[in-house]
Amino acid sequence: MTAILRHSILSRFVCTGDKCVDTCCKNWSMQVDEATLSRYQQNAPELLDAVEKDNDGSLIMRKSPETGYCVKLDGGLCGIHHPPLAEAAG
Question: How many helices (H) and strands (E) does the chain have?
Answer without folding.
Answer: 2, 4
